[in-house]
Design a protein that fits this description.
Number of strands: 30
Oligomer: single chain
Distance between the termini: 37 Å
Mean pLDDT: 95
Strand content: 15-25%
Shape: globular
Low-confidence stretches: none
Number of helices: 20
Structural class: alpha/beta
Strand order of the largest sheet: 12-11-8-6-7-14-15-23
Bound molecules: 5'-O-[(S)-ethoxy(hydroxy)phosphoryl]adenosine
Largest sheet: 8 strands, mixed
């Protein structure tokens, strides 16, 4: 039986939700009458106009706070002006070369207003799409909030993506501008962001782009195109600091964020303003038991959903102090995070299991050299956490004092869906435990029938919630097909899961062709597409295999075009091809040459067999020479 950890009494005593009974009673209320529940929560925010209906649901299309008008930048900033919060730190920034910067709510408000006016002066308006490709610096948060303030829909592209990936995303969303920087710092080196944008835009490959706004971060040499490029500092120089937040319809598209699915190109997940705002803010407050005096640090990148919801919008909408970090966990050494926790007196720390596993491997000395006594709550997100990593986190980082919230959710869900509430729910290492308020998950088979307790099935959510994505940008059919048709009348997440005797959810990982590498989602179809872009590659099949640190790793089986020699140099080139098409973070761990890919008679690649090959499954005999795969496939086909 799994070990159990009760919430520490002194934590529960001060928590927003103090006991399992209290959690259950709020939860019951939230699902019995979701409209009343969410209306009550929404009342806590500022609305330029109130809603006529809390929810309109026409599967799979939902509208929350119908008819209402609001602005998330107003709710994150203006709402606190004239209150004691205005002089509180909104963003505490810690940069790689050691520079730190603090922006109070008042200062952040001013910067956002100025930049919002700068965007307007550059011709951007409500309804335009704006791509953001920036390092993890305060200006990135300012960029998001400035877009939100004027009603431009932002599409953040993670700084690790390549020029090709930028081009696809910019064109799919028909963005009118790109906000970027000359470079960003990583392990003492400059990541040349502007250069990647230039490459993406070269030869008029992104015809909708009118402007590229460049923040000067590293001072590295860049090319300049007077017709499009404008320095951030010039754009804000004459911009007024007076920029009232635009009242926007609650259904207004706040942002698009691309994520990988099992087939085809990445999907532009679209989130609508009102519902997303309420859900991101509400989950932040309760999952992290956020208090006025907390210093909250989420180590994600704003290029992913975790950074959107739990660095920028959720914390700021609660008037919290959020730490923002540019850099790597192991630079200058593996003590970097703990040094930051100590110096900034971080009280809430939220990171990915991959990072925890990497720290665990480095031993206890790094954290033990630092004073971590300010920590009171720990969290994880992005992939299943193995009990060994959980227990290490609990013991070495949390000193057995801090509850751990293992939070399951997705880009599509907007906010945390299954999680312990730290003052109320007993945790078990490896389980995300129970649903958040208003969320009704279930484990079913493909027909939508509930599977018996303790058995594996598909994780679905049965009713819409305010943070639910609205559509896939430009492809509503794909939204319906991907999420609402696998299982009838339920949102299908793509994950497998089981429920134990206490009703706790255990997330088992993706059941589709999505792999999770260090918490980064990648579609095998995307990687295969990148691989066949190499002139020597005829065909490829990509699978995820278990990896001690990164959770999963990519293994690519590749057949070469006739007459091409197999060589290690070619393998390196093929790996680089993925870096070029997608980004370095997506580089496969292994490339294996084979003469043929194993296929069923109907031509489907036998991935299960490839997984066995990758795992060196002894049931297959000696498979050192990969050419044997085709033989194996033949054998297997005869078996079937
Ligand atoms: C996985 C990240 C197990 C899951 C917020 C999901 C998790 C995908 C957990 C979404 C968790 C996320 N336990 N698995 N606590 N959290 N996942 O869109 O497979 O980048 O479908 O959103 O990550 O990844 P995404």
């Amino acid at each position: 039986m799994a070990q159990r950890f009760d919430p520490p009494q002194n934590f529960s005593g001060n928590a927003h939700i103090k006991s399992l009974d209290e959690y259950r009673s709020v939860y019951e209320r939230s699902v019995a009458d979701p409209e009343a529940y969410w209306a009550e929560i929404a009342e806590q925010f500022h609305w330029h106009e109130k809603w006529t209906d809390v929810k309109k649901w026409n599967e799979p299309w939902v509208e929350w706070f119908v008819g209402a008008k609001t602005n998330i930048a107003y709710n994150c900033l203006d709402r606190f002006l004239g209150t004691p919060t205005q002089n509180k730190a909104a963003i505490v920034f810690e940069g790689e070369p050691g520079d730190t910067q603090t922006l109070t709510y008042l200062q952040l408000h001013r910067e956002v207003c100025k930049f919002a006016n700068a965007l307007k002066n550059l011709g951007l308006e409500k309804g335009d799409r704006v791509a953001i490709y920036m390092p993890m610096i305060p200006e990135l948060a300012i960029a998001l909030l400035a877009c939100a303030r004027i009603g431009a829909t932002h599409s953040v592209i993670f700084g690790g993506f390549s020029a090709e990936a930028i081009r696809d995303r910019v064109n799919d969303a028909e963005c009118k501008a790109v906000l970027t920087a000359d470079g960003g710092w990583r392990r003492g080196r400059v990541i040349e962001l502007k250069k990647a944008v230039d490459e993406a835009l070269a030869d008029n490959a992104c015809p909708t782009i009118e402007r590229v706004v460049v923040f000067k971060r590293c001072g590295n040499e860049i090319e300049w195109n007077d017709e499009v490029d404008v320095w951030w500092s010039d754009a804000v120089a004459d911009a007024s600091a007076d920029c009232p937040a635009e009242p926007l319809d609650a259904q207004h598209p706040l942002f698009i964020l691309y994520t990988s699915g099992s087939t085809g190109k990445p999907k532009g997940v679209l989130h609508a303003l009102g519902g997303y705002m309420v859900y991101a803010a509400h989950t932040t407050k309760y999952v992290f038991d956020l208090k006025d005096e907390d210093v909250y640090w989420c180590t994600a990148d704003i290029g992913w959903i975790t950074g959107h919801s739990y660095i920028v919008y959720g914390p700021l909408a609660n008037g919290a102090t959020a730490l923002m970090f540019e850099g790597a966990p192991n630079y200058p050494d593996w003590g970097r995070f703990w040094d930051i926790v100590e110096r900034h007196r971080v009280s809430i720390f939220y990171t990915a299991p991959t990072a925890i596993r990497a720290f665990l491997k480095q031993g206890d000395d790094y954290p033990n050299r630092h004073d971590l006594s300010s920590l009171r709550l720990l969290g994880t997100v992005g992939e299943p956490i193995n009990p060994e990593a959980w227990l290490w986190y609990h013991r070495v980082i949390g000193k057995e004092r801090c509850p751990i919230v293992d939070t399951w959710w997705q880009t599509e869900t907007g906010g945390i869906m299954i999680t312990p509430l730290p003052g109320a729910v007993t945790t078990k290492p490896g389980s995300a435990t129970l649903p958040f308020f208003g969320i009704e998950p279930a484990i079913v088979d493909e027909k939508g029938e509930a599977v018996p307790q303790g058995e594996q099935g598909l994780l679905v959510v049965q009713h819409p919630w305010p943070g639910m994505m609205r559509t896939i940008y430009g492809d509503p059919d794909r939204f319906r097909e991907s999420y609402w048709e696998t299982v009838p009348h339920a949102y299908f997440a793509g994950d497998g899961a089981m429920q134990d005797e206490d009703g706790y959810f255990w997330i088992l990982g993706r059941v589709d062709d999505v792999v999770n590498i260090s918490g980064h989602r990648l579609g095998t179809a995307e990687i295969e597409h990148a691989l066949v872009g190499h002139p020597s590659v005829a065909e490829s099949a990509v699978i995820g295999t278990p990896d001690e640190i990164t959770g999963e790793a990519l293994v690519c089986f590749v057949t070469l075009i006739g007459g091409i020699e197999k060589s290690d140099a070619l393998k390196d080139e093929i790996v680089d091809q993925v870096a070029k098409e997608i980004g370095r973070f997506a580089r496969p761990k292994t490339v294996r040459f084979t003469d043929a890919l194993p296929k069923t008679r109907s031509g489907k690649i036998m991935r299960r067999l490839l997984r066995k090959v990758a795992a060196n499954d002894p049931s297959l005999g000696n498979i050192d020479t990969l050419e044997d795969i085709s033989v194996l496939a033949q054998l297997q086909a005869e078996d079937e």
